[in-house]
Amino acid sequence: MKKDIILAGVGGQGIISIASIIGYAALEQGMFLKQSEVHGMSQRGGDVSSNLRISHNHIASDLIPFGQADMIISVEPLESLRYLPYLSGEGWVITNTRPFNNIPNYPDIDKVIEEIAKVPHHIALDAEATAKEAGSTKATNIVILGAASPFLGMAYEKLEDAIRFIFRKKGDKIIDMNLIALKAGRDFAEQHM
Amino acid sequence: MQKLLLLGDEAIAQAALDAGLSGIYAYPGTPSTEITEFVQNSRFAHENHIHSNWSTNEKTAMESALGMSYAGKRAMVCMKHVGLNVAADPFINSAITGANGGLIVVSADDPSMHSSQNEQDSRFYGKFALVPILEPSDQQEAYDMVHYGFEFSEKYKVPVLMRITTRMAHSRSGVARKAEIRKQNDLKMPSDLRQFVLLPNIARKRYKNLLRDHSSFITESESSPFNKYIDGPDKSLGIIVCGIAYNYLLENFADRNVPHPVLKIGQYPMPRTLVEKMADECDEILVIEDGYPVVEELLKGYLGRGLKVKGRLDGTLPRDGELNPNLVAVALGKPDTFGLPVPELVVGRPPSLCSGCPHIDSYYALSETLSALSNGRVFSDIGCYTLGALKPYEAINSCVDMGASITMAKGAADAGLIPAVAVIGDSTFTHSGMTGLLDAVNDKSPITIMILDNGTTAMTGGQDSPGFGKIEEICKGLGVEEAHIRILKPLKKYHDENVAIMKEELAYAGVSVIIPRRECIVAIDKRIRDKFRNK
Q1: Do A45 and B336 lie within an 8 Å CB cutoff?
Q2: I want to staple B62 with a disulfide (CB 3.0 to 4.6 A). Which of A76, B90, B345, B400 is the partner?
Q3: Residue range B358-524, CATH number
């Protein structure tokens, strides 16, 4: 099993947390992993992305070649489109539909959603609203992770375990809230696949 | 031992701790910052009194590390590539003095300029200084190379340069640690107490030593575990591949079997016999290296009449920018791969000053102050405030190197551009602005210097600012008149007051320093969260 994943969003939206959870779950299953992150200047409200590769076999490149990503997981709708050149023909886009509007020329959100709808395989949901129902908008990224979970090629429980581990210092309340958020994202994806 | 999931930067730091490090010295700079931060956050480092406080700039860091090496202990100094320009004087001379305790200089290059003003290649510096260079292809190699590098440094009494790139620094993968942690060296003076005295007659001898050892460095490269000649049946092409580019090469062969002979380079100077072997048995050579065409130029020679060499110089690969698997595929004559095009409506999302950032208020006040004058008077510097060049502020006209704001404003004023303004952050000011300020004071230059004091080194993630609480004392000490050191609070409600102060100081025909002081909004947020966490 091998999954090449592009994580996308805006600096501060928690894409590194998504990567950490998937990464932990992959390592617990004895998989190889390479994850390339963005640090520095772009974290100041700019677009950020991460290349996450997990595989049962040795991984060569830190970067995913164009046209070969199995999925784009995006916490922001416009950002989900920026990385389409990486997506394979069979690949999925899993994205939040709630825009993060910090630029003066942000395009019409309806047109952005239309473009997402043109991608053959996609899951688009208002993850912020879903996260709010789950307990906090802070779990928006975890809702998105939940929506991506059916495509990750690993047992759902492994992701739950990873959340318990990653948030272990934050207390049971935070863990439970994130588990609810994960499940809400998962449920949405299963109904819309 | 179970593998750790580490960034390249973290693997280097972990290796240094495991290899008996006594001190790490650095000024923060993307993509090198996390090496030092890893040591700062390490309980092991605290318990073993390993030095890890930030230095004021890369030069002071390099010299401190050299001092620790002089005293017999293992030291590491880390910087981003342009930091090596700042540290170049001690770095080049450290090759002549040589080391005593193991000394590794880590320089993190940034091809494609993700967070930098150029993409210079640190391997040039290594060659310039005649020191060995290590360049890892993955995080495990980065870990292993630090151990090897310290041993090498102590064997030949020479500093070793470790060159990484952004992709190596900021990519994670599994790293197996060595089972044993080496003890720190004891304090031990150099056997020759004149070794570090570079008087001409001593320096000439030391330089001859270095030249003699340089041929040993080549021999070492030829048998290095990091330089591998991997044979392949198709000799129409030989491939020389450096550092992380090796991964992009392998990515293009599903079974990881490259049909051509491959020379994988991880240690310089170049292993001469291995290169000769490839030149003898292959029709032409493709060089794949991230950064400048260092190896390619070396092989090609000035006239290019010898070997047939392909790479960045003949367009087989792009001349600039970071490599990736696709570029390497095309260079190998393989088909390129494509996904979907980016829809036309997708616009750029450049980084921007945070909402609530004090620099925003400083820039609005400054722009209003200057609105009656002709444009183009604001010389700025390296930091978050460089984002003031972008819309909607468009408030600055230069960003060149650490500290250049003050001296460029001075030079422009010397030329007759009066008033000229410098905008510099507190940490950049202590890094390289103080000496320029002294020049301006001595010349009574009619410039206004804004030291944007947010109390932290913000751009790289909020590290300690070396001049914290000392900025106006430093200015006074350098001779700025007290009446022309003005401290203001950059807030919207004080806008008119701040503009009035700026106008007064612009009208003064000498050196003025205005210090807009308000804590970085990200630093406040972090401080409050840490407080909450510790409750």
Answers
A1: no
A2: B90
A3: 3.40.50.970
